[in-house]
Amino acid sequence: MDDADHRLLAVLQNNGKASLQELAEAAGLSQSPCWRRIKRMEDAGLIRGYVARLDPKGLGLHALAYVFVTLIDHREETIAGFGRLVAREERIVECASITGSADFILKVAAKDPEDLETFLMKGVLATGMVRESQTHFILRQTKTRSPWPLL
Fold first, then answer.
1. Which is nearest to 67 in space by CA: 21, 113, 33?
2. What are phi and psi of 137, to 5 degrees?
3. Taking the model in full, what pTM does it have?
4. Cα–Cα distances in Å, from 34 out to 5, 26, 27?
């Protein structure tokens, strides 16, 4: 990646709807080479897609929490089953395998605390795959998205 690629990515991270003209100007390129660079980065998987960022509260999601999950065991079928659960549950908006006492951290969205409790009890804990969970409600988010550093 060169400086022009970095400039393109910087603009796209902040404005996924930027026009090809705006992108070309930011990168110091004409439109055709600019489009080819973007296409190359998309094909390589560097640019994974374009999305609209929505306000959770505007969607009626007033309870956000981080849930630390420890699985009952580390057998391949347990881990795969947990992965399938995460993939199908739209309330789980992020999932990461982590180090430390827990195996995973989930970011979960719900209408309210009671809705979150119901989801955790009936949707996660009832599967029999989870030995322990610890939930931390998000009180206020001060930074929810930032561009990835282009080092």
1. 113
2. -70, 140
3. 0.87
4. 9, 10, 8
